[in-house]
Amino acid sequence: VLENQDLKDLIKPQNVEFRSLNFNSTLHWQPGTAGEARDTVYFVQYKVYGQSTWQNKDECWGIQNHICDLTNETSDIQEPYYGRVKAASAGIYSDWSLSCRFTPWQETMIGPPMVTVVHSNKSIILKLQAPRSPYKRKRGSMVPMTNYYDLLYQVFIINNLLDEQHRALVYEGKDKVIKIEDLRPGVSYCIVAKTYVPMLDRSSAYSSRQCTML
């Protein structure tokens, strides 16, 4: 028969970590080394670094998921936070498993811009829109990530006659409307874009490709 202490250790959650995209921040973990019994449930707490008391996250109290949304709880984006998780199974509770320290402003990943393509004769006109944060203005619209960072847009063009992997950088800057000129009629071009944060030297993933035939 397993001792209670052994069971406590075997169900203790593993690899507790924050993941964050555009300040949508979630705590993730994996089941303990024993794997997961059917009745295993998890409990999540969080706190700001330096505070002595932990807060329960009510929506993540006794849940079966391995993910907990802490976007609202980490909305002071310059503050460092911790999360922790414990498991219960068959009436036995594990110890808490702690995340690393998480500071949203430094660690959130920035998403790519939204790209809209409007083509004219021998040129392509692009409209770029910054990714949005989950936080709302007083009037209800979402605050763009440009409120929090000095963002640059990087625009790449893929000439479908050439190598698919060859993405040529055609623009880097802050403009929201960009014109790419001197293109060949009858050729299919695709556009992808990234958001770049110079201060953190960090780029987003590529946007989904927008293709057009001139």
Automatic annotation (TrEMBL):
Domain Fibronectin type-III: 12-107
SUPFAM superfamilies documented for this protein: Fibronectin type III
Keywords: Disulfide bond, Receptor, Repeat, Secreted, Signal
Key word Lipid biosynthesis present: no
PROSITE patterns membership: FN3
A Pfam family annotated for this UniProt entry: Tissue_fac
GO cellular component, one term: plasma membrane
Compartments it resides in: Secreted
Gene3D superfamilies: Immunoglobulins
Chain's role: Receptor for IL22. Binds to IL22, prevents interaction with the functional IL-22R complex and blocks the activity of IL22 (in vitro). May play an important role as an IL22 antagonist in the regulation of inflammatory responses.
Family recorded in the similarity comment: Belongs to the type II cytokine receptor family.
UniProt name for this protein: Interleukin-22 receptor subunit alpha-2
